[in-house]
Every structure is written in C-alpha cells, then in structure tokens.
Records
---
Amino acid sequence: MRDPRKNLYERYEPIRRYVEVGFWIVVMAVQAVFNTSVALVDAGRRAVPHATWEILVWEGSSHLVLLALVPGIVAVERWLSPLPRRHLLRYLAGHAVASVVFSVVHVMAMFALRALAYAAVGERYDFADWRGQWGYEYLKDVRAYASMVFGIWAYRLFMLRLQGEARVLDAPEDAGAAEAAMPLVTPEAPTDAAAAAAMPPAPAVEAPPAPPPVVARPERFLVRKLRREFLIAATDIDWLQAEGNYVGLHVNGHDYLLRATLTDFLTQLDPATFVRVHRSHAVNLGRIKEIEPLDGGDARLHMHDGTTVPCSRRYRDALRGGAG
C-alpha cells in the first residue's frame, strides 16, 4: 500500500537504480535491433552479402560495449557539470577529450569481442586496418556520445527538480553598512583664525578596538520542487550529508540538495547547533535521540526522524563538546 506521506521522489528512490539500469539496457537493445535490421536489408542488396551471424556479431558487440561504457559517461558528466558557466570552454574541451577516449575504447573492445566470436566458429576477424576505420567510427561515436551525455544531463536536471534543490536566501541589507555609507554630519568649524587659535587642542582619544567580523548565518532556505517553491528553516535541518558538489539537507524526512561543499556550508551554520560527526556527515545536536557506541571508538547516532548517522572516532570529542 502506498504511503500517502511520501512524495513522488521518495516513492521512486527505492527503485531508482533498477529503473536507470533497465532504461539503458532497453535503449541499447532497441537500437541494436533497429541497426541490425537495417544492416540485414543492406546486406541483401550487396553482390557478396555478409552472413547473418556476422552482422549479428558486429551490431551486438558494438552495442554491448556502448552499454558497458554508460557508467563512465555518467562519471564524466558528473565531474564536468559543476564547472561554472564562465568555464564553458573547459567544459566543452573536457567532453571533447572524453569523446576521443570513449571512441578508442569502444573500437578496441568491439574488435576484441568480434575476434573472440569469429574464433569461436573457426574464423578469423581481420582488423588490421582499424586505424583507417577509426576515423569513420569516431564520427559515429561522437554522435552517440553527445546523445548519451544530453540524456544523462536532462535526467539529472529532472531529478534535481523532483527532489528539490535548495538555495540560501539573500541576506537583508546590513544596517551597519547602510549607516557607514551615510555622510557624517560634523559641527561647522569656526572660520575666524583668532577664534580657532583660542580653542584648546582636542584631547587624544584612543580608537576603540575593531569589532569582530559578523558571520552571516542563513536562517531560511528556498526550496524549488518542480513548479512549487517553499521555505525551510535552518533549525529544521536534522542532518547533512556531502554528496559530491552538493550537500544533502535532511529535513523532517525529506531530502533536498544545495550546491555547496559540506565544509564551506558548515561555516555558515551555527557551530553551537551543527557539528560535524563524520567526513561526510554533520548533525543538528538538538535532533540526536541516542548515541550508540561501536567497536573501535566509532558511534552510530539515532536521530529523532528515525534515521541513523555514522559518527567516526575522530569527531567523537567534538560531539561531546557540542552536546555539553
């Protein structure tokens, strides 16, 4: 029975990996069947047609290697996607280099599989002229690479919208800065030289120490989920998790992503409330329900929302200090 408290993303998350793997398997299978059908029709028009098993081996080996390369393309796209817009040339250059590597690996692995298939039936697959064929293969591979990258990018963008991407709200204008920008009004100085000379010299006043810098701490976050926008309070965050170039905000059983590193983001939060407990985790001290000690000095934190967060031995002292 479907849990009405869970949104679409939370219901999709348990089967997400199966859907993603199944999607690429289906796509490659459909494309292999289509290309094989076209190749068979074309072979029938040739004066010396190729055997059906050869065409099956050619198309099957090509798409099998393409399927195996999908995780690598996902990793490259994830690595290059955080680049700022001003680094567009670096982004394109990175994908250009990756497309060459992609094509070389595809051709070499494809030829190796074909050689094994031919050897299994007592034939020899001739790939002596693979250097001359690689230019032709690259023209096809670069189109396949571009379409796969676009599909991965579009899917990732959709998942961000489905999950909900958070951002820090702009802080209000600092009143102190506004006052500093106002011109200072001073009493008019006497213009009479004699009167000015008769005035006693102003006593030396020691300048007060400079106030400590004020750290702007976000109190609320704006979350966009599909076409909806709503606010969450910083104090409602139960715990945080580093997820590459994002920080996962776990709030009342929901997960949101914020584009930042965990280290940088923690500098914006109140250190008396949020404490790092692991290389990739931080918690709201007020949301810890129980601390379960583990072997080796580590611990497992049981949160009020029912989740558990790892706590490494390195951060146990900081946890005790913050909790005290």
Note: The domain at 220-323 is CATH 2.40.50.1020 (OB fold (Dihydrolipoamide Acetyltransferase, E2P)).
---
Amino acid sequence: MSKNQLAPIRTDEFENYFTQKELDIVVNSIAKNATNEELALFIQICKNNGLDPFKNHIYFIKYGNQMSIQVSVEGIQYLAQQRDDYRGVTTQLVHENDDIEFAVDENTQEVRVVKHGIKFPRGKVAACYAIARREGFPDKLVIIEREEVEHLSKKSGSQWNTYFNDMFKKHVLKRALKAQFGIDVDDQDQQEIEPYQPRQRVDITPEDNKSISVNEGEVIDADDALAKTWAEIQNIVNDRGVSKEDLKDYIQEKFQKKSKELTLQEVVALKKMLDYDFPKQKPAAEEMSFDDFEGMELE
C-alpha cells in the first residue's frame, strides 16, 4: 500500500453505538470523504456526548482538506436536557408594540421579566429573550435586540433572510443555555465536545456562540456553511447548464423534499451529487441567483 493510500475504514469498534446500517450512512453520506482519522473523531464525539447526527444534533462539514464539526442548537439543547437539574427553557420574540418590562432582582442581581403583554397589531420584531431554568440556580435571562443580529440576515443565502424570526429565537436560545449550564471548556462539571483529538476537552460554544472548529482550519457557522454550499451549487448549475426546473426535479427525485426543507447535510450531499451527475456543458441561457434558491419550491 502506497503512502497516499488510506487503509480501509474500520467501523467495528463503533458498532456498539451505531448499527451497521447507520455506520454505512455516516461513512457514505453524513461524513462522506472523511479520512479515517476524521471519521473516527466524528463518531467518537457523537458517542462520548450522546449526540445523534440523524437528529441533526451535530454536522460533519468538509471543504477541500478543511474539516469542521458543528454542534447545532438542537444538539446544545439536548446536552442541557440530559442534566438532572434542567428545568426547561422559554424563548419569546418582543415586538415593538408589546408591553414589556424587565428588572434586576435585588437578591440574585439577575435580570428578570416583570411582565410581557401582547398587543395587536404587534408591529415589527424588536428583540428576543430566552429564559433557561436550572434547579438550585436563578433563572438565566438573555436579551438581544434586533440590531445586534441584523448583520446575519445581510449574508447572501443566509437562512436569516427567509426565516429571521426562527433563527433569532434559536440564536438567543443557544446563548441562554450556554450561560445557564456552562456548556463550555472552562466548566469541568459539564458535558463537553471533544473536537481535536479524543479525550481532550474543547468548547462546543465559543465566544461568538455560533460555531466550533476541530482543526486548524476554518471555523464554520451552520448558516454560513449552508449559504456557502448553496453558492457552490449555484456555480455548478450555472456552469453546467442546469435549469431551475431541472434542479427542482432532481431535488425531488433524490430527497423527496423542497429545496428550502433540505438540511445542511443534505445540501452538502446535493452539491456532491450535482457535481458528479451533471458533467460540464454549455452555460445555461439564464443564470440562477440566490433569490431563485431562496424562493424555490418543488411542485
């Protein structure tokens, strides 16, 4: 075997966590093109923390030789829910016509919601807050104004453009859970993700509260990764002369979903499939833009 050849991927050591069928999907789809070391690392992270890639708790993302592992908001919430002292989390949007009042608790010095009245019409979304509850601890309230996250909706292809309210709530939810339960490398009492190598702790929610990286390469946010992958798909279909209708039919055939319903893993898989199934040809007469992708719906 030459130095450039990889040994066959051994999956038997992980069969006590994934079934053989699940392992096949991980190897051939979820973590496709992973090296042996990257695959072993990804599965080890899933196994050590009970994260399930089939429930979108965690993503394997690879661009060229750069590999990153992204723990989703759902994954972070799952980690919090496994604790005996988890007592739930509430997330609410604040609209400009709502009657809301916050105050600092004299005993705990924590900010709390005094009242939140809803009036109609509610007006535009002005802020969002999340309350994470933990037994034996004061409720942790995180408040973020709209202006603090509007830059995220200005990125081409970002999910924030189409699903701003949902993304806003997830963003604040993640911040509140991190603050309340200390899902952080500095908190040794908390489950943590082990990204770079097995049995070395690392933060699953860095200071930007958006993403993690597991090597010396790029740190990727899930929304940025989705936008970047759609941009690459856009280049492929424009370069290969694939029409908008052909792309719709292709997505329907392969995924039985509308394009806006595809997960990050499915969009990454779509890019690879398009690159393989559509060889280069004459450019399409009309190129598609991000607006086409954002508004695309399958019949």
Note: Strands lie at 58-63, 66-71, 86-95, 99-104, 111-117, 125-134, 140-145, 211-212, 220-221.
